[in-house]
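Hello K.,

You asked for the raw outputs rather than the summary table, so here they are, unedited. I folded two proteins back to back in the same session to keep the settings identical. This is the first:
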Amino acid sequence: MEYKKYVAPIVVCLVLGNGAFINAQIQPGVYISDTDNIRHELKIDDTYMIYTEYRQSPPKFIRTIGGFLREEVAAGKRLAVLLEFNSNYEKDSLRVLSIPMEMHGKNLVLDLNSKMTFTPITKKEQDLDGAWLFATRGPDEAQERRGEENPRKTLKFLQDGRFQWIAYNTETFEFFGTGGGSFSSEDGAYVENIDFFSRDDSRVGATLEFDYELKGGEWHHSGKNSKGEALYEIWAPRK
């Protein structure tokens, strides 16, 4: 699937919109569309959207894009996004999305060159829900931290039992990798089940278990990564 590139007036409208927000008709959550063994996964909250495609069997990561929602008054019903990352940027140079949309009951219909129906998954609130930016390697010893002002970012987005991390650069639009799937977080135990992994499809199906603790509003995360290496990470809430 290829996204259309839109003309300058839409870009202007996106940039000049008064603040990020989601169309009142769209309920924040995770939406799924499965077509021909390809999963299309859409995560949306009040200000941000992530769209990811991956083949389920045999597993194969295809693409991911994400960014801040914007108002697009002149164009009517559209899901308008100012992208922050695009795994296909070297091929399509896409930094803005403006997608025709409709709501059919609770289902979201997007016209991605052809109309596709996304169904919301069951709501599931857990610890750690929300958007997080990687801050530093732990433990916390007052070391320098990577903040919002740093163009090199690793975002972790958790919603309705689904997680995704994305590493990227907002200045150069370089894309470094992503992975995601389902998660649980309860009583200090955080578990990830990997459904897609851009750097190595063979890791799909793995389950990773970690310890977590919230300290001063930050997420302290420890255990072993997908290579079996010990890690301690500190994640700060994205504001």
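The second followed immediately with the same parameters:
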Amino acid sequence: MHVWSVANQKGGVGKTTTVVSLGAMLAEKGKRVLIFDLDPQGSLTSYFGHNPDDMDNSAFNLFANKGKVAEDLPGQLLLETSQPGLFLLPASTALATLERNVSQQDGMGLVVSKTLAHLWDDFDYAIIDTPPILGVLLINSLAACKRLLVPVQTEFLAIKGLERMVHTIAMVTASQKRTLDYLVIPTMFDRRTQASLKALRTLREQHEGHIWQSAIPVDTRLRDASREGLGINQLAPDSRGARAYQSLLKSLIALG
């Protein structure tokens, strides 16, 4: 199983859109894909028409047994989506209580890794949507993944926020004594504005070697896809957003 986490310590940069778009396109290629919602806000869960406030069976259940994950539990939490081959492990707002309740318990940073180990032979890819806050959930996602994808809106404040994420990556990998491949993905790019063009140039200069050389454009069809609960490949496969995510996916597959 290939495990990717999509993370940034700034919200509104396109994390959930990236998870859904890549996941749906992989499933369209015949892969079995798990998309894993670790964000208490539940944007990924809401994308497919579920209410995070009402989820009795969710990622929260995985953290209920002091870091131990029963072998049959992850499979019981999975939900089908609008894309055949794409399965959702949903979030609930109860995840927001984990920080104060379990963050000091031993083994709580490896719950997601243990969950994926139980599902390892069932999926080709797992893509994790993460909260924009450094805590036990983000630590879990970084510990579990082999590649980190960092969407960054092409505007000045988002670039400043990226500095926090890069610092977090360095801190976590040092504590785990391993390297973590990460890729910065410029999003919401509008080539008509000087601000967006300048931001993209700055990203490329500051993160050489860790940045995807293209960008995800502003495209209202991505918002339309979210409203319909569909991947952009299902709703508007010839749109600018769909073509950009197809290009990103091709780059990620080439990286291995």
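The mean pLDDT is 94.

Happy to rerun anything if the numbers look odd on your end.

Regards,
P.
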